[in-house]
Amino acid sequence: MRFSFFKLGVGANYRAESDSEGRTPSPGRFSSALPLQDQATRPGWAPFRSASVGLLLLLGAASADASTLITNVATVNVTPSGFSVVWVTSPAPSPSQTATISVYADPFGATDLAGQLGVEWYPLNSGSPAATNAYQQRLSQALLRQQSQNLGFTEVRISGCAPRTTYYYRIGISDTNGTVATWPAAGPLPSVTTAQANSFVADSVQLLINVSPIAPPGTIILLSNTNTPSLLAAVVGDGGDTNQVYFSLSDLVSAGGTTNFTPVGPQEFTAAILGNTSGSASRTYDLSFTSSFNVGVENQFTLGAYLSLAVGLATVQAGHSGSLPIQLLYGSGITNLTLYLQLPTGDFSSLSVQLVSSQLNSASLHLVNSGLVAINLGSGYGQALQGAQELAQLNFTIVTNQASGYVSVTPLVQQAVNSDGTFTTNFVTQAGQVLIIGRQPVLQPLPTTSAGVRSLVLYGNPGSNYELQASTNVHSPAAWQNVLSVPMTNLSQVITGLDTNHPAVFYRAY
Predict the structure, then answer these.
(1) 447 close to 457: Cβ distance less than 8 angstroms
(2) 103 and 249 co-located in one domain
């Protein structure tokens, strides 16, 4: 009996492991994680597409609530005396949940610096510039903080640090039930080194970006430059109108990490909404710096309109039919849309598109090549797409006798025509996934809870009976022990209460 598997470590992508015949997985048949989820939050093992046995590893170091994800963590706004950390919580935290951060002097969290450093949640510069007194300013800041939290954005500022010193941190989300989602879930902690000192900045350049309607108030925007690894973060509505975000470019740290960023000549800056992991919905700006003395030089730009699309998830038996929703998450005024879907078309015996939105009146699909299909969607006369909605469904039938495994379906926007004849060129796309259930079972790990409960999901064919086995030594055939016999009545079954006596346990099913 042969099997292959993928391994996912903290902060790493899936790594293909060859099977007993020396073969490795073919590209395009796996999805490394659910769309827009940070892979570093999902430790465990996932099955190789052509495996005849499902195999995974449950790690004891992870502690995460399966319903809460911490993603897009970034260290920003570094100074000689502190730094900030930003991230996205999905879904947005409820009033019963509390964000936490622990800062350490070592990468393994042995020396906790609690009580020695300052911690400020949702730090702001000034709030609304329209506030006429201190009370109104405090009200505007409280509103902005609440808007950030409602959108799932979090920022925390750490102060009282020593210059040119490295610190380590771990963040988390807890609730009244005691469950906690942590990042990172395991392994060495992320680090940040403070700057050496502030330096005199001759050409003080400010950047004001109009972001409406892309980013509502409370949204966190990141700003980067190709000549420095440091990042700036700012909140929409803080120090500008409710549709603006403000940056002081001299707050960046030099490439060497010692003093302020003081370039001379042309520089390229990129602004992006925190959480847009696809790399789009961003805009670059070219600015020029001089050695002359200038104070508060303002540059005003627009981030521009964008379109956000997502493809959903499906679990289907080989030889059976299913559908994936194509969803509009953000975008307005679109009348015609052309998108490509990257997927291994050989796994499907049929593909078609079906309209769902009442704002559309035409849909077509055609095959471009063996890994690409094109979909054209058009609205009716005088109509345009407005608001988040399901646009269409990709209907499909899986080829009979397919091996079990994941198939990624990635949308690529080719063209979006607006009602005024202009084009939207800024896109965010979220990949979908089809889990094909063939002859082989599939195992998927679930995050370990704060109480130490380990669980997994077994996918298989209804009417079949599967044996779940466990081992602490995958290299020893004799070490495998029967754990549970599972008669399948549905396509999936959650199995809880697994071994917690060992730091790492392998599981397989047949």
Answers:
(1) no
(2) yes
The verdict on 242 and 317 lying in the same domain is no
H-helix or E-strand spanning residue 74: strand 69-79
| 290 lies in some domain | yes
390, β-bridge pairs: 327
Cβ atoms 92, 151 nearer than 8 A: yes
pLDDT of residue 407: 93
pLDDT in tens, 288-310: 888 888 776 667 766 666 777 88
Letter string b/e over residues 325-341, b meaning 16 or more CB atoms within 10 A of that residue's CB? bbbbebbbbbbbbbbbb
**Beta strands, E only, 194-278:** 203-210, 220-225, 228-235, 244-248, 265-273
Q: Is residue 45 part of a domain?
A: no
How far is it, in rounded angstroms, from Cα 109 to Cα 399?
50
User: Do both 118 and 235 map to the same domain?
Assistant: yes
Distance separating alpha carbons of residues 325 and 432, to the nearest angstrom: 9
DSSP state of 161: P
Q: What is the pLDDT of residue 374?
A: 96
Cα 433 to the center of its chain, rounded Å: 15
Strand stretches in 105-179, DSSP E: 118-121, 153-159, 166-174
> What pairs with residue 267 in β-bridges?
287
- Distance CA(337)–CA(392), nearest Å, equals 12
Domain that holds residue 255: 69-302
Task: Give me the pLDDT at residue 291, please.
Answer: 80
Q: Distance between CA 323 and CA 320 in Å, rounded?
A: 11
Cβ atoms of residues 186 and 64 within 8 Å: no
Same structural domain, 346 and 290:
no
Task: Give the domain-ending residue among 377, 407, 437.
Answer: 437
Cβ-count burial of 494 within 10 angstroms (0-12 exposed, 13-18 middle, 19+ buried)? exposed
Give SS3 for 135. helix
Ranges of residues in the chain whose predicted pLDDT is under 70: 1-67, 176-179, 212-214, 276-282, 296-298, 301-305, 450
Nearest to 91 by CA among 124, 72, 69: 69
